[in-house]
Each structure stands twice: as C-alpha cells, then as structure tokens.
Amino acid sequence: MIYNFFKFILSVGLKVFFKRILVHNKHLLRTDAPLLIVANHPNTFMDPMLIAHLLNQQVYFLANGGVFNKITKILFKQLNMVPIYRKADASANVGVNMREQNNKAFSTCYEYLGKKRTILIFPEGSSIIERRLRELKTGTARIALGAEFENNFELNLQILPIGVNYSDATRFRSEVFINIGEPISLKDFKEKYNPETSETIENNVNNAENSSQKSNPVKELTEKIGEKLLELMIVTDDEAEDKFIQNIEKIYKNRLFEDENISLDTKIKDFELTKHIVKAAKYFEATNPKVLDNFKIKLDSYLGNLQKLKISDAVFSQSKKNKNILVSSLFSMLFMTVCFPFFVFGFLNNYLPYKLPSIISRKITDDETFFAPIMLASGIFTFISYYCVVLWAVQTFWLHNFLWLLGYFVLMVLSGFFALFYTAFFENVKENWQFISIFYKKNTLISTLVAQRKEIFNFLENAKKEYLLSDV
Length: 472
Fold this sequence. Notes:
The structure is a single chain. The protein is α/β, with parallel strands linked by helices. It has helices spanning 2-17, 46-52, 72-78, 98-114, 139-150, 201-210, 217-231, 239-260, 267-287, 289-309, 314-321, 325-364, 371-397, 402-441, 443-470; strands spanning 20-24, 35-39, 59-64, 81-84, 118-121, 158-166, 175-180. It folds into three domains: 2-231, Glycerol-3-phosphate (1)-acyltransferase, CATH 3.40.1130; 239-321 and 454-470, no CATH class; 325-441, no CATH class. It has 15 helices and seven strands.
C-alpha cells in the first residue's frame, strides 16, 4: 500500500521533473521470470525511482545499510529496501555485524528471486555524476549465481542490464534516456559455479576481484555484466574528454542528423551518434593527437567567443534556415506580447513552488549527486502545499463554484508549463536580437566568427570521412 502510494506520487513527479523520459526496449521489462536488474548509478535516488516507475510489478532494492536505523528501517521495509553493508563504510557502521547482515540480505534476495520477484541492484556500489562506469562489485554475480544454485539452475533468472543516460543530471526539465539491453542468461554457469568451494563473503569478493583466472564464475559474470552496461551507456575517459564530446555535440550533432536524414526525436539514433563521436575522438587521439589538440584549441576559442557575446552556435543555424532573422524575431516579439498575460498568470501561480526546491536542495547538501532527487521530493511537497493553499484562498474569497475552481486549478498547471516554454522562447529571442545587434554594429566580428565556424566544420567533415574510411 505504502509502496504503491509513493510510486504513484513519484511517477507524477518524474514526468513533471523531466522534459522527456525516453525508454529503449521497454518490452524487455515484461517477463514472468525472476528479474535481477543491474544499472549504472550516476544520480543517487533518482536512478532507482526512474527504473522502478517503468515496472508494473513491485521492485526490491538493495540499499546502503548505513541509512537504516531504528526509525527509517520501518519505512524502508515498506518500500522494499534491503540493507547491504559495504566494507568501505565499516567505520560508519560500528557495532554492526556486517558479515551476518549481508548473509541475511543475500538469503532475502534468494527468497525473493525464488518467488519470481524483481530486484534492482547498482553494482558500482556508489554514485557519481559522470559518464563512466566504475569498477563493479561482485555481489550482483554472487546473488544471481547463488539464487540459481539453490534452485538447481532451473530458476530461469534473467539479469537485465540498463544504461541510464542523463542529458543533465541536475537540471529541471532535462531529458533522460533509459537504454535496456538484452537479458543475460545463467545457464552456461551451471557446471562452473559451486558455492561450497568458495570462502566467506568477504574472502570470496577478494578472490573474485584479485584472481586472474578466467574460470572464476563470479568474476566472469561480473565482467559480462560490465561489458553489457558499457554497451548501453555513453562512456568517456575523464572530465576533459567529456567536455570535449559535449562541445562537439552542441555544434555538430544536428548536422549529423540532417546528413543522415534522421528525426531529432529518434533517441536511440541520438545515442548511437554520440557513441560514434566518442569512438572517433579516441581514434584521432590515438592516430593524430597533435592535430586533435590543435582542433580543441580552435573549438574552445570559438565557443569562448560565443559565450562572451552571449550567443550560441544555434543562432548561426537558425540564420541560415531563416535568412530574414529580423522579420522572424519581430513575429516572435508579437507572439510574446500577445501571450504575456498568460505567462504572468503562470509565473505568479508557480514561481514560488518552482524556485523553492532548488534552494532547499542546495541548503541540504553540497553533493550534486543529491540535487535532483532532493529537488524532485521537495518539489512534490512545495507544489502540492502551495496549490492547496492557493485553491483554498480562491475558493474562500472568490470562486465558490467547484467547476470554476477545478478550471482555475487546470489553468494553474497549464500556465505553469507555458511559463517554462515562454521563458525558454524569450531566451532564444533575446539571443537572436543580440546576434542582430552584433551583426549591424560589429559586422567584422560576425565575419570572424563565421570564418572560425567554417574552419571547425570543415575539420569535422574531413574527420568524419577519415573516420568512416578507417572502418574502426
């Protein structure tokens, strides 16, 4: 009951928080077999909420045992959370028999999987906002193999890998792409795995991680899970490479979509293009690093100049598609003028509950991995509370008819979304006017930017041809 209530509230919150939640291969979630879902973990509590809301059945979560205490464990149990204790957190769990508690957690998982239930695990064991996959813990493999062993490998357990890819993990109204891979079968491990030959949990972890023998089934399955997850994620080597890839995406991805005649709404193609951009960057890093470094300098210079002028590369694309950008901007101003009253209504009725969550999240923590889930949770509270107060006031002092009150509520919600759209539209128009102003006042500066942009695009076009011919 509590689980379903929270799931409903959070599902609504997720659909408001994210501009788009795109799911690839969602049909793979529908199965009668016991399911062990494994996923990368960039965004703390947001990741399990996103995955759980996609499933019709209840999900059981392996969670950090450090957050369980006498008060929280009652609620967490109702939310299907199973405590697991990491060796890295030993100092924070003084007085807890971690081995005994983890043995209980494993037994609980065996029981749930034996009843064909669904368990969600994040095998990295920690959460950091980055486009990388950290070293996987072996607990997932040991749970899966242990559950099958207890059922003579007739359980038909499915390990389902999921890649969670955020456009911006901390930003409201960003996008997330949930990439579901083909399930991993454990039938091939029947002859390989026997827990009686293993030592205690901690020793087994050490043996699995330190052993170089490929015959170690726990290590073999852990590596297989890692390989599957890497296929479902955008992965960069470090922050510098990640920033470089994002810069190329900003200015060049739309050109690639146009060249391939692909709709921008085709998220799996978007994902695949980014994977190719990362792969191409690694290819040039290996074959011609000096040329690539020189290009990075030019790209940074171009984007830096755009930032100083408070315009983006997109304004050049828009000016090409619509040569009379002045007329277009004038029509945009007319639209904004006509719609301004509706924007004001939406702004006044939604700004406070919209603004408070970001303030609350930054007051509570400095860890950016917690910003989004705290914003989501506090946003649900602030919007519900604020709407209730406003509707009470409107009903008490103005509209005494229920249907009129219902209409006011619907108008509040719709105008709130419109206010977000209007604000983004305004920023785009403001950028166009900035471009027009620079064009007429500093035409030589625009010519310099155009020349820089042309040089960058020529390099990217030639690099694309070379990369495709290399057949990497």
